[in-house]
Amino acid sequence: MKKTRYTDIKPYVTKDGSTIRELMHPSIHGNANQSLAEAVVPVGATTQLHRHHRSEELYHIIAGGGRMTLGDETFAVSAGDTLCIPPGTPHRIENTGGEELRILCCCSPPYSHEDTELLT
Questions:
Q1: Nearest to 85 by CA among 59, 111, 62, 67
Q2: Residue 43 within a domain
Q3: Are 113 and 98 in contact (CB under 8 A)?
Q4: What is the mean pLDDT of each successive set of 10 residues along the chain, which is 120 residues long?
């Protein structure tokens, strides 16, 4: 059984500007085909527009609210919403609420900096 504990995982800042905790990632924990992370976007902050060439990403909003840009669409998101981000789709999220925006992010294949392209 592979298990991690949230308090044991050190956060880091990804290329898009969000603070991430890799809850389960093959390069760290030995699982095979996907990664699961928590992203935190501070009040008033926006991640940089970016895309992943290979990874399909799922976002599940666990706290806060914001505006999601997904391809040509922009729409409100809040706790309880789940989004699918297909490979190659430009996306970013803005925290428009009064608390941290917290997101569970699942990537398959697993997240990698090399697969992340920052856009303007």
A1: 59
A2: yes
A3: no
A4: 88 90 88 93 96 97 98 98 98 97 96 90
